[in-house]
Amino acid sequence: MKPAAFQYSRPGTVAEAIALLSAAAGSAMPISGGQSLLILMSLRLTMIDMLVDVSRLPELREIRDDRRHVFIGATTTHATIEDGKIPDPSSGLMSRVASKIAYRAIRNLGTIGGSMALADPSADWPPCLIALDAEVSIAGPDGQRWEKAEDFVRGAYETSLLPAEIVLGVRIPRRKSARWGTCKVSRKSGAFADSMAVFVEASDDGPPRAALTGTTSHARLLPRVSQYAQDHSFLDAGDLRAVILDDLAELVPDADPYQLRCHVATVSRAITEARSS
Amino acid sequence: MTITHLTINGEAHSQQIDPRESLADFLRERLNLTGTHLGCEQGACGACTVSIDGMVVRSCVVLAVMCDGRKIETIEGTRNTEPMDIIRRHFHEKHALQCGFCTPGMLMMARDIIARHPEPNESVIRNQLSGQICRCTGYAGIVAAISSAAREIRDSAQ
Fold it and tell me: Which residue in A has a C-alpha nearest to residue B47's C-alpha?
């Protein structure tokens, strides 16, 4: 359970970090909390020649609140969000999601940007940020770009990040009188989700958004469920179940009966929680 | 090799550290601080819990080089300190350990739980302890010890 040898560097700026990643041509990885990456390296599931320590870069620690959005720097830890130490655009949803990630000792180091960049298929932040309609800020050799969370995550451990790009942070719209619900099924508290759903709807702009993870692939928006919630202020349990199964048939065609039951349960409970709040 | 400056249990150390060395291995192999136990070495069991700048972490999933400039406290550093002495006494009285392998991590976590939840009920304690694995006690004694230690610490602060 020891990682293979690798080089370590701690650049002082984002530009230096990008230059190091560029020069390594795909054999280097940024590291901040390392709470998933170091375990993957210790288990020899991934081999990396160089770790670029971005945990102390000031640009990645920024928190900005311009009333319409909150920008959360990539190296903000789960524990910081759990404890409500930064402005919250989500009326409590993010604190609740953070509090259920792994264990406190992991949450003290693990970061929101790292969770997005690694894109574990069962990680908690991708469905939460997709449901919140967040955008990911990315810096690379060609400058800075934004990408919607739902487009950023592409597959299991797969994102739109190029080898020399790093996540700077996420920008989350503040939505008026937002209601939300979330439900996570895992074999024990702190374990990765077998299924996790997040549902967000607001009275002002944009339709409701339901997102699901815990599939064999990656976190997704559930388009039919979101539409159904928009069209129905009162839910019919049977109709909702049928709509969820429709989305699952397309997004998770390989799901077994147990997984289907989990997904139907978490999505239904997330919406029910939002509607009863 | 990278020169790393660490404060461990109040003492300054500067060492050449191999990047692949975990904080746990550094503490145990270089400094002989073997109170930090290694169970799973993959962040699952909690036996290696220590604190960095006052936050509990799992030292098996922390690189020692990344701790440059940080203050580390291990179980050895908690000797004759409050409130750990109170927690330790309650662990003894409530039979919160048998083989003792998980105990250093349990104590570090117990202190953190009490600091964040001064009046923890059983469900809070069990939830917060869910990342610390004990194969002897069935947890009942540990939960009771944390609960009664929290009460004594709360009462003595008033």
Answer: A105
Q: Where are the domains of chain B?
A: 2-77, 84-157
| pLDDT at position B136 | 95
Let me know: does A212 contact A197? Beta carbons within 8 Å.
yes
Q: How far apart are CA B123 and CA B143, in angstroms?
A: 9
Q: In the A/B pair of chains, how many CB contacts fall below 8 A? A: 82
pTM to 2 decimal places:
0.96
ipTM of the complex: 0.96
Judge whether B33 and B24 are in contact, CB under 8 Å: no
Give me the sign of the Cα torsion angle B19, B25, B31, B33.
positive
Chain B within 8 Å of A38 (Cβ-Cβ)?
yes
Tell me what pLDDT residue A224 has.
Answer: 97
- Which of the four CATH numbers 3.30.70.250, 3.40.190.10, 1.25.40.10, 3.10.20.30 does domain B2-77 have? 3.10.20.30
Query: Is the distance from CB of A174 to CB of A67 less than 8 angstroms?
Result: yes
pLDDT of A203 reads: 75
Residue type, A38: L
B57, B106, B109, B132: which to substitute to probe chain A, counting the most A Cβ within 10 Å?
B57
Determine which of B25, B45, B63, B139 to mutate to test the interface with A (most A C-beta atoms within 10 Å): B63
Task: Classify A206 in phi/psi space as left (phi over 0), alpha (psi -120 to 50) or beta.
Answer: left
Q: B8 - beta bridge partners?
A: B11, B72
Residue-wise pLDDT tens digits, A32-77 = 999 999 999 999 999 899 999 999 999 999 999 998 999 999 999 9
Q: Residues near B109 by Cβ (< 8 Å), separated by ≥ 6?
A: A104, A105, B46, B49, B56, B128, B129, B131, B132
Question: Taking CB atoms and an 8 Å limit, are B131 and A2 in contact across chains?
Answer: no
